[in-house]
Design goal:
By secondary structure, the protein is mainly α. Helices cover 58% and strands 11% of the residues. It has a single domain, classed as Orthogonal Bundle (Arc Repressor Mutant, subunit A), CATH 1.10.10. Strands 1-3-2 form a three-stranded antiparallel sheet.
Amino acid sequence: MGIVVKSRDKSIIKKISEEILEKYAESIESLYVSFEGTSSDLNKVLLALPDHQRKTFETMLKLKEASAKQVALETKRARAIESAYLNQLVQMGYLEKRKKGRVAYFYLPERYKGLKLS
């Protein structure tokens, strides 16, 4: 979806920009309200993540520790996709990872272990 404004009138461009920002601010506010009741740290994490990573992180909140295969079974997505998302979350500092034999297990860092979705 793109918006093309063919005007040199700065007041029109400003008004359109403000309307667009207001629309997105309402969307963000509705996301925040949907997580009401959870800790502010969890709100910040969930709002910072794109949808595909949010689904993976929410699954990890539920499972606490899991392999990519276990997460994929919960999310109904391919194991390889979940493996990529889990590794991205590790790089971002939202998850930690350890190997047991050939299998990598992902788990929540201490700061997120007590958090639950409402």
